[in-house]
Amino acid sequence: MAYRKIKYNSDIKGVYVILDMRTFAVRDLRKLDYLLSEQVMAVQIWDNNLLPNRDLMISLIEVVHQHNIPILINNKYELLQDYDFDGVHFDDIPNEWNTINELLKDKILGVTCTNDLNIVEWATKHQLDYLSFCSMFPSENNTRCVLVDRELIRCVQRQYKIPIFLAGGITPQNMKLLDGINYVGIAIVSGLMKADDPKVIVNEFYQALNTNYENKYNT
């Protein structure tokens, strides 16, 4: 198995695609293949207790890997034994962390953080690859997340060196409100695979991300 890593670029921000498997079907594999490009930093299969059958899961992973993009599973680390996932994104600190270290060796590891510095400290102590702050804005998918205190993110960045993704309610239109936060990319899920042309949506986010970034640092 190849060990893929998220490719960070200090000059370019990227998109982290989260797939909602409640609506993902075989017909969406072609759409997924079409939308993946260098604009996408990683793909995550969201843990909503409805995962695809084995054949579809294998095909989905293969499609993502054809683009040399890492794919992560949300929470269900035990699936690393059965599928070629490149890592795990945890919604919380796993209770069984000390017993699963060997399984997670060489994998990409990330965790969601809202306003809890204990999670930040845990993630940096155990050298996780990134933090995801959620939710930045109200969102149809933020049933778990509360709104993030942006000053806390700035505090984290002053104290720690760890890549940060932002998620929750972000649109190309409100992205300018994130100025002042140094982040590597944003995560999107809402309605992506339902769109007639999801590549257009990814490109809109990518262009907004990097237009705002260039304007901020080149003026």
Walkthrough of the structure:
By secondary structure, the protein is an alpha/beta fold. It is 27% helix and 18% strand. It has a single domain, classed as TIM Barrel, CATH 3.20.20. The chain has helices spanning 28-35, 54-66, 117-125, 150-159, 198-217, and strands spanning 14-19, 40-45, 71-74, 87-90, 108-113, 130-134, 164-167, 185-188. An eight-stranded parallel barrel has the order 1-2-3-4-5-6-7-8. Strand 2 (40-45), helix 2 (54-66) and strand 3 form a beta-alpha-beta unit. The model has no long low-confidence stretch (mean pLDDT 91).
List the helices and strands and how they pair.
Elements: E1 14-19, H1 28-35, E2 40-45, H2 54-66, E3 71-74, E4 87-90, E5 108-113, H3 117-125, E6 130-134, H4 150-159, E7 164-167, E8 185-188, H5 198-217
Parallel strand pairs: 1-2, 1-8, 2-3, 3-4, 4-5, 5-6, 6-7, 7-8
Helix pairs in contact: 1-5
CATH topology: TIM Barrel
Enumerate how many helices there are, as a single number. 5
β-strand percent reads 15-25%
**Structural category:** alpha/beta
Average pLDDT: 91
From the spread of the alpha carbons, the general shape counts as globular
CATH C-level name: Alpha Beta
Distance between the termini: 44 Å
Q: How many β-strand runs?
A: 8
Radius of gyration from the alpha-carbon trace, in angstroms: 17 Å
SSE sequence, one letter per element? EHEHEEEHEHEEH
What's the quick description here?
Helix content is 27%, strand content 18%.
